[in-house]
Design brief:
- The protein is an alpha+beta fold.
- The protein has two domains: about 80 residues, 434 Repressor (Amino-terminal Domain) (Orthogonal Bundle), CATH 1.10.260.40; about 100 residues, Immunoglobulin-like (Sandwich), CATH 2.60.40.
- The protein is built from six helices and nine strands; from the N terminus they run H-H-H-H-H-H-E-E-E-E-E-E-E-E-E.
- It has a five-stranded antiparallel β-sheet with strand order 3-2-5-8-9, with no helix packed on it. The chain has a four-stranded antiparallel β-sheet with strand order 4-1-6-7, with no helix packed on it.
- Strand 8 and strand 9 form a beta hairpin.
- It is flat.
- The two termini are about 40 Å apart.
Length: about 240
Amino acid sequence: MESFAEHLRKQREERKVRLSDIAAQTRISIKYLQAIESGEFGVMPEIYIRAFIRDYAKAIGLDPDETIKRYDMFMEAQRMPQAEETGGLERGPQSHGFPSLTKTQKVIAGVIAVAVLALLSYLAFAPQKKPQVESGLYERPLQDSERSYESTGGFVRGEPDSAHLKLSAVDTVWVNLVVDDGKTYDLLMKPGMSLSFYGKNKFNMTVGNAGGLIISLNGKELPSLGGRGIVVRNLTIMKNGTIKW
């Protein structure tokens, strides 16, 4: 029996739709589309998996609601074997009493207890190494030097005809950004993270969880794109502040 991912891939191939066509239509990264077809859902931001699958289904001509139902059934089937393995175990007879210890055993137990206490004391008072934070994971307040990811797009910062777009996350947000129809950025932003980009004419964006993102253009905050969990697609912000939907 074919898996959910194999079913989607076969449906796409039968309809002769390329992944690049789906990416252009949905603004979903190719790597996420490939993950959908290989069943590697864990590589995608969890809060967007269902939205990505729904958009994928629309792009190849499948019913998105039926596709989501099929996905839910597939995931439930994946969880069932684990539940059966843990749920079918039988407990053996338990003894609630404790056997009496000989004098020698008591001495050994006492030595072990002293050793354990000594180890715990050492661990409690030994100097602790500062934990390392993996690059790209913002699990602590960001320093000013870490808050900006600068992309000049070929234009010098501060040049009169360049536009400065600043994205600030107040919740986990996924953003696909295209600067001046040129370089594309796939961003997974964490709360407290701010990114800056510079372009000459416009910025095209697709945003997941629109309510979790604050957008500023040339220092001026733009109106909110929507509420929490809302996906906004093909939004264009012009250098003069005009927003096209």
